[in-house]
Amino acid sequence: METIATFSCNASTLIPYVPSGANPWNTGKVKHAFKRLGFGAPQPEIDAVLAMSPGDFIDSLVDTAAGLPVTPAPVWGYYAVSDFTNYEAENNQYIEDWRVQTGNDFISEKLRGRLTFFWANHFVTELETYFYAPYLFQYYNTLQTHCLGNFKDFVQAIGINSTMLVYLNGFENTNNNPNENYARELFELFTLGEGNGYTETDITETSRALTGYNHWSEPGAAIYFDAITHDAGNKTIFGQTGPWGYEDVINILFQERSTEIATNICRKLYKFFVSPDVDAIVEQNVIIPLAQTFVTNNFELVPVLKQLFKSEHFFDERVLGVVIKSPFDVMFTFANETGFFYDDSIMDAFIYYAGLMGQELFDPPDVSGWQRDETWINTSTLTGRWQLMEVYLDYLFYNGYDFTFTDLARDLTNDSNDPDFITQVLVDHFMAKPLHSLGDYAIATTIFKWEIPQNYYDDGIWNLSWSEAPYQVFLLLKHIARMPEFQLK
User: Fold this and answer.
1) Cα distances (Å, whole numbers) of residue 294 to 58, 59, 91, 259
2) How far apart are CA 204 and CA 182, in angstroms?
3) Is residue 52 a contact partner of residue 64, using CB atoms and an 8 Å limit?
4) Which residues contact 454 (CB under 8 A, 6 or more apart)?
């Protein structure tokens, strides 16, 4: 079990956040919600939300995500190997196509994209292990289908997903040769948490109950259950004895270990959406009540998400800027917050460069997934982030999209001609909270002013319609992307 620290900077609770004079509903809080519950938003969308109450906004965000249809299946989504004309070439291309589709979903679907992203790092598979386009789609489809649904149903569905059966050796788990891989990860990573409420005997007995999913009609087709390879004997799991099968395991697990499951999953949701640090105060004020909500609602995710996201705790100023952006966060949030152009080719580049920075889409390093936060940043990946931002900005500036730089500045500043104001507004637009030092704004302003003589600013001659202005905004955005605060959300 995790060690819990003994103090917290954020002692706010799950009481719904109600704006007040001392704690107003403002642009900073709306941006915080969009950065954490999606991948950012352009200023007009932020402004529109300011007219809503926080509770109505969260209800709308969650309900919209829950109501989105899944991404339609590609024609090859349920192929068997024999359905391919040229297996190697087509399989490679289909995988590439689906990675781009996934990136487009993540960046555009707000909370549904963010939650699909979250669950892909919870119910982990590694593409390089199975490297088969139909299974990639089917895995993704399961994540999308259940990401805001019932967690018990989610656990049941993912365990007999063909992708997972191949990845964690369920396909090899037979009555003659039991394989414990999936049983172990079911408890350790997917539900209970490491060392929390299960024994080695529970794992061994569970692996026997999970046998039988060992057949397909042909290679690459869906894997199905066959009673011939299932161990029909009695097993004792969490003190319950019987001739258990797959559904029995899920029922017993959620019946006998409901509190442990709820607490573990709520803690993981908290770490992802709020803060990587969980201490004794957070455990008492947030995690335990959330877990009670989860159990009371029969493991429906929506009530838990709404309770957390509407809370004073989620909107507390002390949780702003405490999470390090993932590589996908860096690019997707920037693209959404600027409204800058991207297409499938650029998305493909985003995904490629994210892989170089340690986040290969559908290929986390192992079954425990990316560990996030501090692990994203080292001397190599940090410079990689800078270079990726520069590549993207260079592409836009030198390929006919330079006008979008000044369009952004005009829209955010109401076409101001004050370089100090323009700089501060642009910097703040991309940050989770204002910079610590006025000197940091001054440095950014100097970069923005570029080589334009000071008297042109003093006399009000310069403005964002000048031919040099797009390049000035371009320089400022490159500087912003190198600020330490830009790496936080």
Assistant:
1) 18, 17, 40, 9
2) 11
3) no
4) none
DSSP alpha helices (H): ranges in 124-172? 127-130, 133-146, 151-159, 162-167
- In contact, 311 and 329? CB cutoff 8 Å: no
Counting other chains too, the contacts that 339-345 makes at CB distance below 8 Å and 24 or more residues apart are 339/42, 339/404, 339/408, 340/392, 340/396, 340/401, 340/404, 340/408, 341/396, 341/401, 341/404, 342/107, 344/100, 344/104
Tokens of 48: 């529109």
User: What's the pLDDT tens digit per position in 24-82?
Assistant: 999 999 999 999 999 999 999 999 999 999 999 999 999 999 999 999 999 999 999 99
- Which pLDDT score is estimated for 10? 85
Element of type H or E holding 473: helix 469-481
CA 78, chain centre distance (Å) = 26
N-term to C-term CA, the chain:
28
Q: How far apart are CA 183 and CA 202, in angstroms?
A: 9
The per-residue pLDDT for range 189-231, each reduced to its tens digit, is 999 999 999 999 999 999 999 999 999 999 999 999 999 999 9
Output the CA torsion 67→57→298→195 (10° steps): 110
Distance, CA of 265 to CA of 151 (rounded, Å): 9
* Surface-to-core class of residue 188, CB atoms within 10 Å of its CB (0-12 exposed, 13-18 middle, 19+ buried): middle
- Residue 292: both structure tokens together: 């009670």
Task: Kindly list the distances between the CA atom of residue 282 and the CA atoms of 190, 279, 475, in Å, as whole numbers in the listed order.
Answer: 22, 5, 41
In sequence order, the β-bridge partners of residue 300 are: 150
Residue carrying the six token digits 């039991």: 178
CB 116 within 8 A of CB 147: yes
Nearest Cα neighbor of 127 from 95, 159, 97, 104 is 95
pLDDT tens digits along 441-478: 999 999 999 999 999 999 999 999 999 999 999 999 99
Structure tokens at 420: 């100090």
Q: Are strands 223-224 and 215-216 parallel, antiparallel or unpaired?
A: antiparallel
C-alpha count within 13 angstroms, C-beta hemisphere, residue 315: 27
Helix axis angle for 301-309 and 288-296, nearest 10°, is 150
| Domain locations in the chain as residue ranges | 1-160+235-321, 327-487
Residue 293 token pair: 């909500």
